[in-house]
């Protein structure tokens, strides 16, 4: 995956999602989400079939329980 930025509108509110990392060379990707005010949306991240071990999601440093599947 390569670093990228996508800007869009959700519920009439501006959202910016920035991905940072050098996956698969380094086993971590960081997604920063910026909004001027709270907004609710799904963030779906593709996990390659060959990268099934050790995946986890953290939000502000806290582990989050979620379904992870390639």
Structure description:
It is a single chain. This protein is an all-beta fold and 70 residues long. The chain is 0% helix and 41% strand. The chain is built from no helices and five strands. The strands form two sheets. It has a three-stranded antiparallel beta sheet, with no helix packed on it. A two-stranded antiparallel ribbon has the order 4-5. The mean pLDDT is 86.
The helix fraction, in percent, is under 10%
Structural class: mainly beta
Strand order of the largest sheet: 1-2-3
Gross morphology is: globular
Beta content comes to 35-45%
Low-confidence stretches: none
Tally of individual helices: 0
Number of strands: 5
List keywords for this structure.
70 residues, mainly beta, two-stranded antiparallel ribbon, 5 strands, globular
Short synopsis of the structure:
With 70 residues, the protein is mostly beta strands. The chain contains no helices and 5 strands. The protein has strands at residues 4-10, 13-21, 29-35, 57-59, 62-64.
How is the secondary structure organized here?
Blueprint: E1 4-10, E2 13-21, E3 29-35, E4 57-59, E5 62-64
Antiparallel strand pairs: 1-2, 2-3, 4-5
